[in-house]
């Protein structure tokens, strides 16, 4: 909620008019009661989504020069990292619970989200201006996402599965997750990691 307020404040500044949210549509939203399903959702939205959100916010902060944008990005990067950590801890707990179907759901969710296409990023003819105000170009976003998968998500996934037992399965999952730097030639997964990071 705080992130939304901060971002609307920036939007209001750039547009010169007061902008804010409307009512939130909660149709179709329901908390799952099955631990396997909840763990899979935590993988998609937390372990991956929040981790990428944190990495992107940190990269945006690194290139931003505008004082107000930097202040907002510092808050977002810190908060997203905390959200990500919470998700990884929850999934670890879910795996260690030993409940039926959790390992399979977690592994499947990682493979699924890894193969989603890249988020569309508007192109700009003024990348320096975008960077100054905390925006990344599409190439910069792609690099950040690949780095986050290679350096954070895949190693953390491996450690998570290993710590919960079943080393052979962990190896299988790692092998089945396409490398972000070596796209699949068979087209099963185009090698474009998901960066749909709503945070
Ligand atoms: Fe978040």
Q: Could you characterize what this model shows?
A:
- The longest helix has 30 residues, at 67-96.
- The model is unreliable at 172-188 (pLDDT under 50).
- Helices cover 64% and strands 0% of the residues.
- α1 (2-15) runs antiparallel to α3 (67-96), α2 packs parallel to α4 and α6 runs antiparallel to α7 (167-176).
- It has one domain.
- With 199 residues, it is mainly alpha-helical.
- The chain starts with a helix and ends in a 23-residue tail after the last helix.
- It has seven helices and no strands.
- It has helices at 2-15, 35-63, 67-96, 102-114, 127-132, 138-163, 167-176.
- The structure holds fe (ii) ion (FE2).
- Fe (ii) ion (FE2) is lined by residues 50, 53, 80, 83, 199.
Coarse shape: globular
Low-confidence segments, ≥5 residues, pLDDT <50? 172-188
Strand portion: under 5%
Measured as a percent range, the helix fraction is 55-70%
Largest sheet: none
Spell the H/E element sequence.
HHHHHHH
Q: Average pLDDT value?
A: 82
| Structural category | mainly alpha
Bound molecules: fe (ii) ion
Structural Rg? 18 Å
